[in-house]
Amino acid sequence: MGLENTNDVLMETAVFEEFESNVRSYCRKYPVIFSKAKGSLLIDQNGIEYIDFLCGAGSCNYGHNNDYIKGKVIEYLQNDGLVHGLDMYSIAKGEFIQFMQKYVLAPRGLNYKILFPGPTGTNAVEAALKIARKAKGRSNILALMGGFHGMTLGALALTTERSAREACGVTLGNATHVPHPSMMKNLDTIEYIDMILSDDHSGVDKPAAIIVESVQGEGGINIVPDQWLRDIRALCDKHDMLLILDEIQTGCGRTGTFFSFERGGISPDIVVMAKSIGGIGMPCSIALVKPEYDVLAPGEHNGTFRGFQLSFVAGKAALEFMLKENVLDETVRKGKIVQDYLAANLPLIDPGLTFRGLGLMWGIDCGAYPAGTAHQIRQLCFENRLILELSGREDSVVKLMPALTTDDATLMQGLEIVRSAITQVITATVASQTTGDEQDNTKLFA
Ligand SMILES: Cc1ncc(COP(=O)(O)O)c(C=O)c1O
């Protein structure tokens, strides 16, 4: 592709190991130094290409360096467009708002004010919590077990992953977690939530809101049924609490519709978005708020980087691109390719493998195998030039999140790498289980 490194001297990973904080994370799983990216490919400084099934954790839905989006950003910069604007009125922001209203919200019959909370998803969650608590005058928020909503303290109180919670060093409060519908087959979670909110001896404080991911991304690709979305909407109305949809990972077309909640035909009170709303990996988040809940007074939620204009330019261009290239339909079509591929191949490897997903967001569940199995699969994929991440309990779910713009050949090539890695790891694991040999996969790829 002509994207090889042209620098004279290659960089050493020691730069990071010596001087970057220990908290660094993704880089430990893919210890090469990336220099370029195009479409579905990440390219390291040696010019080695990796197929990207991680996609910036969902921030690059429309492909790396998407020519259309990048072109708009370059043109804007070349014309000395405003880059930093606090939350002042600007052409870039105005155009983003107008486009979002006209082509995304209005056609779906959605009426929202757009709030710009800051550059990251967790900023949007914090803003949503503030709004819900102020609007309802209550502090408690319901959240689903397995959910991930961000790493700042308010959002972290809703996030369930133990290590992330423990690391914050304070007691996290004002949240009540309820089981996800996928967790206990015999539990009607709607009935359960209704019960704890109705029973004056449940010990659960009346909440201001419930926050829901329609597909849990970090939690292991756990999907709430369409009917559950309708039922939770009705329950929110019954108990006078707001429904917050976290679309930070599932939004921007990832599941085949712009918002993943569209399959339920519901209208949430607040929708939080980030990641691909910045178009080309630019930092941006938004909270969409029903006008009656637009209760924060001027300045009650603030921040320096709520007006990064390049995000607005890229964000609008991404929406244009999505419409003109039929990205949503294409995502559904490619999602079917992934589904058919997994359905045809995984049972041939081992019946213990299950999978689930929507659009181009899929998870292969290795929970039936020893801890560390999925880590091994990720490592083998990496060695075979495919980047992907794990999610769910004990990182047991192999997550596939290709760019929505990926071409069919690259998609198939990535799937083949995944299949081959799973075959190798699972075959060895099953063989060692039948011979009684202990195989502790956690030690192999710490
Ligand atoms: C569903 C969901 N909510 C919130 C967040 C937090 O977003 P950020 O990392 O931009 O703060 C994430 C990040 O992965 C997410 O997947």
TrEMBL record:
Top-rank taxon, per record: Archaea
Per the UniProt entry, the Enzyme Commission number(s) are 2.6.1.76
Alphabetized Gene3D superfamilies for the sequence? Aspartate Aminotransferase, domain 1, Type I PLP-dependent aspartate aminotransferase-like (Major domain)
User: Which CDD domains does the record associate with it?
Assistant: OAT_like
Needed cofactors: pyridoxal 5'-phosphate
Which UniProt keywords are given for this protein, alphabetically ordered?
Aminotransferase, Pyridoxal phosphate, Transferase
Q: Name one GO molecular function term.
A: diaminobutyrate-2-oxoglutarate transaminase activity
Major enzyme class: transferase
Q: What protein family is recorded?
A: Belongs to the class-III pyridoxal-phosphate-dependent aminotransferase family.
**Name of the molecule in the record:** Aminotransferase
- Per the UniProt record, the source organism is Methanocorpusculum labreanum (strain ATCC 43576 / DSM 4855 / Z)
From the broadest rank down, the organism's phylogenetic lineage runs:
Archaea, Methanobacteriati, Methanobacteriota, Stenosarchaea group, Methanomicrobia
